[in-house]
Each structure stands twice: as structure tokens, then as C-alpha cells.
TrEMBL record:
Keyword DNA-binding: no
Membrane topology: Peripheral membrane protein
Name of the protein this chain belongs to: Cytohesin-4 isoform X3
Location of the protein in the cell: Cell membrane
Coiled-coil region(s): 19-53
InterPro entries from the UniProt entry: PH-like_dom_sf (IPR011993), PH_domain (IPR001849), Sec7_C_sf (IPR023394), Sec7_dom (IPR000904), Sec7_dom_sf (IPR035999)
Domain of life: Eukaryota
GO molecular function: guanyl-nucleotide exchange factor activity; lipid binding
Segments forming domain PH: 259-387
Keywords, alphabetical: Cell membrane, Coiled coil, Guanine-nucleotide releasing factor, Lipid-binding, Membrane
Ranges where the SEC7 domain occurs: 54-241
A cellular component term, taken from the record's GO annotations: bounding membrane of organelle
GO biological process: regulation of ARF protein signal transduction
Length: 406
């Protein structure tokens, strides 16, 4: 049987041309597809490069932010300059104020330090910072809770005065019908702060009743008294819940003692020790003990060893005075005492033999240095550190102002 072979059909000239066009188009499409692939690959490469650069930029920015925060927490003014120089912050007053108000990673003590300075820029930032707070429809205690949590009040009376004046002005602006004047708000704010201390400080044994709080604030509303129910609400709020004071991570004892005003070995006259064998009749004698002293933050701390993490005793220097004294047993002595309350125990605490913190029993503290020069240097440093409690003077001055306007 013969097999049939089909010869390929010859294309006409028109069909051959069409086939060539198809092949050419196919080639063009393949080339275009490859170009698209190359372009897509290039775009992805650029995206990867951009993301890498962005990640690097963000990492650099985060690094600069971290450096800036550390600088601010150590020296606030230098920290702000660093933020501005690295374009992390503009020099605009409102921008700086909002940055401090948000406070991300910032030490609240450092914020208070910056806001308390008298430089014109700092004063403007303080005003803008206070304006960041919204006090509308808050009672005074609620507003103070918000305000005092946003930074830590410094210790100097003039700084406290400026800050509380700005607070009182802002509160009255947000709540125009609550008080007759900003002076009323100012005085009552301090009364509340002092009430908070009196009610919740374990060292204050005489807790003020509501009647005393009312008496403290008589006549402060442009010569008239504030409604008792208003004062009762404020009193009860503080009594049930004390102010939350910012405690920064950097404010532990290690940070407190990192940069003291002065430190060194001194001899401290301690408590009475009973002698059973000498003299033969028995007796009691005070002993001198060598202690490592650190002066910082208006307090005098003393340790048994320089390596101790916790002090053996703490002597707050508020309302105390220091003077040279002669002692028959030791030369180059100085004495800490309360000039207005001679014979009363000084507010202090120490660790007893069982490790418990107990109240100090000294009416004065006598300390001996190694030389007259060292004693005089300690006296000078202590005098520079001693401050009186500023609140009472500030309130007294403002009450006199209110009275003079009647």
C-alpha cells in the first residue's frame, strides 16, 4: 500500500509577508516585555535603595533624637540648641513649648529647670507651655494635678512664683467665672499644695482639719470668702488622693549623688553610748564617727563607706543655719541648727542597727573637718545650699496684695 506524502503548501506572497509581520511583532513584543522587566527591576532596585536610605535617615534621626534628649536631661538649654541645630526642632516658641509639653523621653525635672529660667525666650516658652494645657471645666485640684504632672517644680521661690502665676492666669482664662481674680487662684493653689504636703507627708503629724483649711483661705476672694462647699470639694479631693509628683528615672539616688555640691570625709558627733565599765559608776558619752558626706539638692547625706548605695542618714537643710563652733574634743567644728526653734529636734532621718529608717533625735548636728580651710569650705557650701520653704513667703506676699486692694 502506498503511503501518501503531503507536500508543504507553499504560501502565497501575501501570506508570507503577513507571517513576517507577525514574527517581527512577536520580536518587538518580546523586546518590549524585556524592557518592562528591566524597568521594573530598576524601579524595585530604586525602591530598595530609597527604603535603605530612608531607614538610614530615620536611624540617624532617632540617634540624634536620643543624643538630644540626653543633652537636654543633663543641660536643658544645650539640649534645645542641639535639637534646633540638627533641625529636629524649629526655634519657634510654640514648637519648643509643644515639644516640652509632649515630653517624650524628657526628664521632667529638666523641663522644670528650662521653664524656670528668666531668659526672655524661656519666659515666652513658659507662657506657651502653660497655654498647651486645657483647664476648662476642671476644678482647681484637677487642673493642678494635670499641671504639676507635666514637669517638676524647681525649688527656687522666684521660679515657682512665675510658674504658678502663669498657671493661675491660664486657669482663670479657661474658667472665667470661678474666681474674682488671678490672685485668688494663685493663693488657693498654694494652699492646696501645702495641704497636700501636710496631709500626706509622714513626717507631719499634725494633720490639718477642714476648718483650718477654710481659715487659711479667709478673705482671699477680693476680700470675701470662697464658698465652703467649693473648699470642701477641693479638700476632700486632696485628702483622698495626693498629687502624683513626677519621679524621673534619672532621679534615683545614684543620679542624686552623681554631681554633688560637695563631698568628703568628716567626723560627726553621734548619739549617746552607755559606758558600763568606765567610769566605774557607769555613764553615757557621745561618740565621734567618721562618715562620708555628700551635699546636694538642699540635703546633707552621710554614708558609712563611699561604696554604700544607701545613706546612713539624711539631713534636709530647709530652715537650718550653719555656724563655726568650738568643741573641747575636736578642732575645726561646724554646727547645723534651727535658729527659730532652738531646743527642738531637727527634721532628719537615719538607719538604725536593724536597717530600719527612724526619725533623727538631734537638736543640732556637730561636725568636725580635717582643717580650718576645709571647715570653712563646707560652711560656705552649706550656706549656699540652704533654702527656706518658699511657699509661705509667696502666699503671704500675695495675701498682702489682695488686702491692699480692698
Amino acid at each position: 500500500m502506498d503511503l501518501c506524502h503531503h507536500e508543504p503548501t507553499e504560501l502565497s506572497s501575501g501570506e508570507a509577508e503577513e507571517l513576517q509581520r507577525i514574527k517581527w511583532h512577536r520580536k518587538q513584543l518580546l523586546e518590549d516585555i524585556q524592557k518592562l522587566k528591566d524597568e521594573i527591576a530598576d524601579v524595585f532596585a530604586q525602591i530598595d535603595c530609597f527604603e535603605s536610605a530612608e531607614e538610614s535617615r530615620m536611624a540617624q534621626k532617632e540617634k540624634e533624637l536620643c543624643i538630644g534628649r540626653k543633652k537636654f536631661n543633663m543641660e536643658p538649654a544645650k539640649g534645645i540648641r542641639y535639637f534646633i541645630e540638627h533641625k529636629l526642632l524649629t526655634p519657634d516658641i510654640q514648637d519648643i513649648a509643644r515639644f516640652l509639653y509632649k515630653g517624650e523621653g524628657l526628664n521632667k525635672t529638666a523641663i522644670g529647670t528650662y521653664l524656670g529660667e528668666r531668659d526672655p525666650v524661656n519666659l515666652q516658652v513658659l507662657q506657651a507651655f502653660v497655654d498647651c494645657h486645657e483647664f476648662a471645666n476642671l476644678n482647681l485640684v484637677q487642673a493642678l494635678r494635670q499641671f504639676l504632672w507635666s514637669f517638676r517644680l524647681p525649688g527656687e521661690a522666684q521660679k515657682i512664683d512665675r510658674m504658678m502665676e502663669a498657671f493661675a492666669t491660664r486657669y482663670c482664662l479657661c474658667n472665667p467665672d470661678v474666681f474674682q481674680s488671678t490672685d485668688t487662684c494663685y493663693v488657693l493653689s498654694f494652699s492646696i499644695i501645702m495641704l497636700n504636703t501636710s496631709l500626706h507627708n509622714p513626717n507631719v503629724r499634725d494633720k490639718p482639719p477642714f476648718e483650718r483649711f477654710v481659715s487659711m483661705n479667709r478673705g482671699i476672694n477680693n476680700g470675701s470668702d470662697l464658698p465652703e462647699d467649693q473648699l470642701r470639694n477641693l479638700f476632700d479631693s486632696i485628702k483622698s488622693e495626693p498629687f502624683s509628683i513626677p519621679e524621673d528615672d534619672g532621679n534615683d539616688l545614684t543620679h542624686t549623688f552623681f554631681n554633688p555640691d560637695r563631698e568628703g570625709w568628716l567626723l560627726k558627733l553621734g548619739g549617746l553610748i552607755c559606758l558600763l565599765h568606765w567610769p566605774p559608776t557607769g555613764g553615757r558619752v557621745k561618740t565621734w564617727k567618721r562618715r562620708w558626706f555628700i551635699l546636694t539638692d538642699n540635703c546633707l547625706y552621710y554614708f558609712e563607706f563611699t561604696t554604700d548605695k544607701e545613706p546612713r542618714g539624711i539631713i534636709p537643710l530647709e530652715n537650718l543655719s550653719v555656724q563655726k563652733v568650738d568643741d573641747p574634743k575636736k578642732p575645726f567644728c561646724l554646727e547645723l541648727y534651727n535658729p527659730s526653734c532652738r531646743g527642738q529636734k531637727i527634721k532628719a532621718c537615719k538607719t538604725d542597727g536593724d536597717g530600719r529608717v527612724v526619725e533623727g533625735k538631734h537638736e543640732s548636728y556637730r561636725i568636725s573637718a580635717a582643717s580650718a580651710e576645709e571647715r570653712d569650705q563646707w560652711i560656705e557650701a552649706i550656706r549656699a545650699s540652704i533654702t527656706r520653704v518658699p511657699f509661705y513667703d509667696l502666699v503671704s506676699t500675695r495675701k498682702k496684695k489682695i488686702a491692699s486692694q480692698q
